[in-house]
Write a structure and sequence with these properties.
12-stranded mixed β-sheet; globular; Leucine-rich repeat, LRR (right-handed beta-alpha superhelix); glycoprotein; mainly beta
């Protein structure tokens, strides 16, 4: 009997469970009104990823991104972030009157923020960040009195005056993120007193006015990239809570108050790109928890304090950036005790002395930039201990001595810039063991010897400059055999022999097979970006801003210009000036459709000016002066855009439309080779040009100028940098 009772109870429980499950399933049916609103919303959207394909039937649990209340079936949460949706249909959500959470960030929604959103009285979270919304913040939103999170960041079309009601409309507001919009005016007074506020990001706007202190304990404050003025407050209400403080790129002045270091929870402090002045107080000592300290691009002066954190050997500092100030004195030895450092930037100051020998203690260091200072002495061997180095920039100092073979240990190194020093000796073969190198600049030093084939190990090389050294010997056959090479500068050395005719097809950049855009920089820039997302690891990256080109000028190269070199259709500049090149200019110039600058001046090139030059529509600067060119220069093709480009070629004559070639007509005179006449670099000797233009001396001058010894003696024109 007892066994039968137990079976009956088990069956009863099973039945009740099934009934409850069925009831719950039935309760998940979408409210008819909400369902119709969502259908209308979907009908007005572009949904290329078919993210909303599951919006069918009445079972709420199957609708992607939708959550419903079990008993009523009313929609209370929509989360469709990063779904690839686009359209201007947000107002169709205004009938979801019980909506508590609306997350549509990371899409392409457009149009204004609907005024009817003010009717969604139950909203606690509204996230419309990273869309294409426009217009001002509707005043009806001031009725969202229960809102705890408001995120509109990443909508640069949202702007207008910063409304005052933002600081008072909801006393539950914890997170306000309006970064990267276009708000103007001053920060509303209420935000300085809103006790519930923990997270505030107003970066990347057009806010003005004096920065005031906040009376509530904030956790995150980002007001960077505005026009805020005044001096730094102490943020005393956030002493134990503030973890991130970013006030970069404003107009703050005065000194850095020592009370800033009383923010004991601080992990990130960025005060860069302001007008901060005076010395860094030795009493400005931060907590060991600090991970990022950026005081760059200010007007700070005096020595670097010996200690910036309480206990350097226990500190968690990952990034220290004091670059672009007026700091002086030596690099403190205590800085080498910051064992956790991954990025150290002290460039563009007035630092003196030697690089500390103990720099090798920083074994986690990935980026070291000490460029543009007055540092002297040798590059320490101990740098090999920084085996994780990704970037080493010591350029434009007074460093001397030879490079140590021990630097071979830096096999993670991608950027090596030692330009503008007094480094001597040869490029050591072990340096070629830095097989990850992509950007190498050793220009303007005292390096000598010949190039070694060991450099071929730099298979990822994108930029190489050995300009203005004392390198000699023949150019090796492998010089153009790097697949990713974008810029090669060997100018201002003593290379001799012929330009090797081979391996021109290897480089994707030289042959125009790369889709990497060029953004207009005529100089080489390698900006390094650092990403810090609160983790213990920094992410370093860089972008190479450089035209695609080859510069072999100011050497002693001879022979003819290889056909393969002229046929490189990806080149944007080519400079072979100030050599002893002879023969004709190859006629396949029409292949170089991207060429912007061409300088073949001060050689012994002969023959006619190739007609194919006239089809180079991108050409901005041309210099063929001081050669032995002869024949007509066709003006009808627009070559008259380059005054002075043909000077010092007395056998050339101008071809005028309908008149043929007039040997007594003057070639275009001028100092500039650019189409706009913008370069006044002494590209021609005016006196020598007029002598060569006098018809009575025509034959004798031709003979004289085509003699290499005579040319070297007569024409000592200023040698410009191309």
């Amino acid at each position: 009997m007892a066994a039968l009772d137990r079976k009956f109870v088990s069956l009863l429980l099973l039945l009740l469970t099934s009934l409850v499950a069925a009831a719950e399933e039935a309760g998940l049916g979408l409210d008819a009104g909400d369902r119709d609103a969502l259908f209308r919303f979907r009908s007005q959207l572009n949904d290329p990823r078919l993210r909303l394909a599951s919006w069918n039937g009445s079972n709420c649990t199957t609708w992607a991104g939708i959550s419903c209340e079990n008993r009523t079936g009313r929609v209370f949460r929509i989360n469709l972030g990063d779904s690839g949706l686009s359209g201007a249909a947000l107002e169709l959500l205004c009938n979801l009157s019980l909506l508590e959470t609306l997350v549509l960030s990371g899409n392409d929604f457009s149009g204004p923020i609907p005024r009817c959103f003010g009717r969604l009285q139950a909203l606690r979270t509204l996230d419309l960040g990273r869309n294409k919304l426009q217009g001002s913040l509707p005043p009806e939103m001031a009725g969202l009195w229960q809102l705890e999170e408001l995120v509109l960041s990443g909508n640069p079309g949202v702007g207008g005056l910063f409304p005052e009601w933002i600081g008072t409309f909801s006393y539950r507001l914890k997170r306000l993120d309006l970064g990267s919009t276009s708000l103007q005016g001053e920060i509303p007074e209420g935000l300085f007193h809103l006790s519930s506020l923990k997270f505030l990001d107003l970066s990347g706007n057009r806010l003005v006015g004096e920065l005031k202190d906040f009376e509530q304990p904030l956790v995150h404050l980002n007001l960077s990239q505005n026009q805020l003025s005044g001096t730094l407050p102490c943020f005393s209400a956030s002493t134990g809570s503030l973890t991130a403080l970013n006030l970069a790129s404003n107009a703050l002045v005065g000194g850095i108050p020592t009370c800033i270091s009383s923010l004991r929870a601080l992990l990130e402090l960025n005060l860069s790109s302001n007008g901060l002045q005076y010395r860094i107080s030795p009493r400005l000592i931060f907590s060991d928890k600090l991970q990022v300290l950026d005081l760059s691009s200010n007007e700070l002066s005096g020595p670097i304090p010996g200690s910036l954190v309480e206990e350097p050997e226990r500190a968690e500092l990952l990034l220290l950036n004091l670059s672009r100030n007026q700091l002086s004195g030596e690099i403190p030895a205590e800085m080498t005790e910051l064992r956790s450092l991954q990025g150290l930037f002290l460039s563009q100051n007035q630092l003196t002395g030697e690089i500390p020998v103990a720099i090798g203690n920083l074994t986690y260091l990935q980026s070291l930039d000490l460029s543009y200072n007055f540092l002297s002495g040798p590059i320490p061997v101990s740098l090999a201990g920084c085996f994780q180095l990704w970037q080493l920039k010591l350029d434009h100092n007074n460093l001397s001595g030879a490079l140590h073979p021990e630097l071979d240990a830096l096999d993670s190194l991608r950027i090596l810039d030692l330009a503008g020093n007094r480094i001597s000796g040869e490029i050591p073969l072990p340096l070629a063991g830095c097989k990850s190198l992509e950007v190498v600049d050793l220009s303007s030093n005292d390096l000598g010897g010949e190039l070694s084939g060991a450099i071929l190990k730099w298979q990822n090389l994108r930029f190489l400059s050995l300009a203005r050294n004392h390198l000699s010997g023949d150019l090796p056959n492998w010089m153009f055999s790097f697949q990713y090479l974008r810029s090669l500068n060997l100018s201002g050395n003593h290379f001799s022999g012929y330009i090797p005719d081979g391996d021109f097809i290897v480089s994707d950049e030289f042959n125009g097979n790369s889709n990497e855009p060029y953004d207009g920089f005529s100089m080489v820039l390698v900006p390094v970006s650092v990403n810090f997302a609160g983790s213990r690891q920094l992410e370093f990256n860089y972008k190479l801003h450089s035209q695609v080109g080859i510069d072999l000028s100011n050497n002693a190269l001879r022979g003819e210009i290889p056909e393969g070199l002229i046929g490189l259709k990806g080149l944007e500049y080519l400079n072979l000036s100030y050599n002893d090149l002879a023969g004709r200019i190859p006629g396949n110039l029409e292949k170089m459709g991207k060429l912007k600058r061409l300088d073949l001046s001060h050689n012994s090139l002969s023959g006619e000016v190739p007609a194919s030059i006239s089809v180079l529509r991108e050409l901005e600067a041309l210099n063929l002066s001081y050669n032995c060119l002869s024949g007509p220069v066709p003006t009808r093709e627009g070559l008259q855009r380059f005054p002075g480009a043909f000077a010092g070629n007395p056998a050339l004559c101008m071809e005028f439309s309908g008149k043929g070639c007039d040997t007594e007509a003057n070639l275009p005179a001028g100092k500039a080779i650019g189409a706009s006449g913008g370069r006044d670099d002494g590209w021609m000797s005016v006196g020598a040009f007029w002598i060569s233009a006098v018809a009575s001396f025509y034959a004798s001058v031709v003979a004289l100028l085509c003699s290499p010894m005579s040319r070297e003696y007569i024409f000592q024109a200023f040698k410009p940098e191309f």
